[in-house]
Amino acid sequence: MSKRLSHGVNFEWGKKTYVMGIVNVTPDSFSGDGVLDIEEAVKQGVQMEKDGAGMLDIGGESTRPGSTPVSQNEELARVVPIITRLAREVHVPISIDTYKAEVARQAVAAGASIINDVWGGRMEPEILRVAAEAGVPIVLMHNRSQTALVDGSLTATGGRYVGVEYKDLMGDIKAELREQIDAALAAGVAKEHVIIDPGIGFGKTVEQNLELVNRLGELKKLGYPILVGPSRKSFVGYTLDLPASERLEGTLAAVALCIQKGADIVRVHDVKEADRTRKFVDAVVRG
């Protein structure tokens, strides 16, 4: 299965894994890599393309546990100028990481060709219509973080979700993703424009995230490309007892396992290292 996006890129789902580079345009990113300067953010994105990124994900609001929401106008002021510049300077598709419909609309007008919604259309359902009318793919992520408790007591390792209950972790995730997929299709999103994300780190405990990575392959039954974002997440930090700045090896291990289990896109901060990992694992599991 393949899908042609802007920039003349033809994604051959199942034949290789794609690396999505993260450009955080925030002052409070959990990973410590956020930048607000336009020139620095554009430089970061250009370098990620050189390092092997198959797409870039631009976000203007932190989604770490306990983060403070930003206004729509502030988010637009952060992401639109950078997307406008990057659309002229890179040759890979640009994704807008937002759950706000108007931010998605203006980002697509500025040059983004993928919408990455951490709420999968549940926070602002209008975003599904934005994707449908623009004819761009949308990432629908599973997310229970609103109903989860945050434990931020171990500040060196970062906040984490605790006490999140699932009757059946993968069964519940699949059922809720199906609901989100049905809503997207009903809004007019083309089936080939749907990408799913199980939401590693969003409303899931450390143990549940580890189980999710191990059972990721079960999501293939839904029949859509799978994006995963394990990069520098707290479940890596708590497992290894390391802060975000020292989670590269754990992240790469998670990336390798996710690819082995069937991930089509891996969303990461460290593009060069992840792409090298991707190439090797693809050579083994995809031939």
Can you give a write-up of this model?
This protein has 287 residues and is an alpha/beta fold. The chain has one domain (14-282): Alpha-Beta Barrel (TIM Barrel). It is 40% helix and 16% strand. The chain is built from nine helices and twelve strands. It has an eight-stranded parallel β-sheet with strand order 10-7-6-5-4-3-12-11. Strand 6, helix 4 (126-134) and strand 7 (138-141) form a beta-alpha-beta unit. Helix 1 packs across helix 2 and helix 8 runs parallel beside helix 9. The longest helix has 18 residues, at 72-89. It is globular. The two termini are 17 Å apart. Mean pLDDT is 90; it is low at 28-32.
Total count of strands: 12
Low-confidence residue ranges: 28-32
CATH class assignment: Alpha Beta
Rg, Å, rounded: 17 Å
CATH topology: the name is TIM Barrel
Q: Give the overall silhouette.
A: globular
Q: Mind telling me the CATH superfamily name?
A: Dihydropteroate synthase-like
Number of helices: 9
Order of strands side by side in the largest beta sheet?
10-7-6-5-4-3-12-11
Number of domains: 1
Assembly form of the protein: single chain
Would you tell me the structural class of the helices and strands?
alpha/beta
User: Strand content of the residues, in percent?
Assistant: 15-25%
The major pleated sheet works out as:
8 strands, parallel
